[in-house]
Amino acid sequence: MEYIKLSEQVDLSKVVIGCMRIKDAGMEGEQLLQFVQECLDLGVTSFDHAPVYGGYACEKIFGDSVLRKDPSLREKMKLITKTGIVLPGLKGNKVIYYESSKEQILKEVDESLIKLGTDYIDLLLVHRPDIIGNPAETADALDSLVKSGKVLNVGVSNFMPSQVSMLQSYLSTPLVTNQMELSVQGLDNFFNGVTDDALTRRMPLMAWSPLGGGNVFKNDDGDTTRLRDVIGEIANAHQTSMDVVMYAWLYKHPVEVAAITGTMNINRVKSAVDALDVSLSYDEWYQILAASRGYDVP
């Protein structure tokens, strides 16, 4: 396993377990505990949560099944969670909205600590940009959480470069990562300044949906078929599977990328780990880019 040093306190494994589907997968109790232990045995130490996952259920399922069953596992793992999304009905609201007020952030973190069964979060991310949020208030909440020891590091998710700069200008605490959509089909953030900004800041990125939601394997439209054929050829050349190549494609980028798997299947987690040993050539990387976009670079 390879690790990304976010700070003096936290090294993030380059493969991160996304816990969004714990409830939908029916993973709980001994089954979830065994899965977590198998991940740790692979060196996969990072687990990504958010209060809203599973309709506010997934954090508690993880806490009940893992850390309240075996508290000794806490020192072996890095816990990531988020703040700032309010689902319809939580506060009598009619629509989903983003709230990064100090009150909301502090409340959500305290609830996450209880649900997860821990007294600190290794990495807290502002889940989405709050368009009407006061950045000074958001920063005050994040700084206070770090000062209290409830949170060791802070970052953002789905923030554009200008939004990262804006929030950082109010913070005493450094933002250590930005969690963005990145995949062979999710190309926007390679070309809109996100990766350039991350390189400028020496800031690692976390990639959500690194396999593009599995569309490469499921869809049969012409664009997807073309991409699947190219990835398949490269996979055959490396004597590996297509998903391994898709992870390796992300790892090739000079931005340090931690890939967030969305699976509760340990064999699929192993694919993300195996990809760390696959080195794509320049030609292979650009073949995949061209197949995804439908044209060669100029």
TrEMBL record:
Keyword Oxidoreductase appears in the UniProt entry: yes
Domain NADP-dependent oxidoreductase: 14-289
Keyword terms, alphabetized: Oxidoreductase
InterPro entries: AKR, AKR_Detox_Biosynth, NAD(P)_OxRdtase_dom_sf, NADP_OxRdtase_dom
Coiled-coil features, chain-numbered ranges: none
Major enzyme class: oxidoreductase
UniProt-listed Enzyme Commission number(s): 1.-.-.-
Gene Ontology molecular function terms on file: oxidoreductase activity
Full protein name: Aldo/keto reductase family oxidoreductase
Organism name: Metabacillus endolithicus
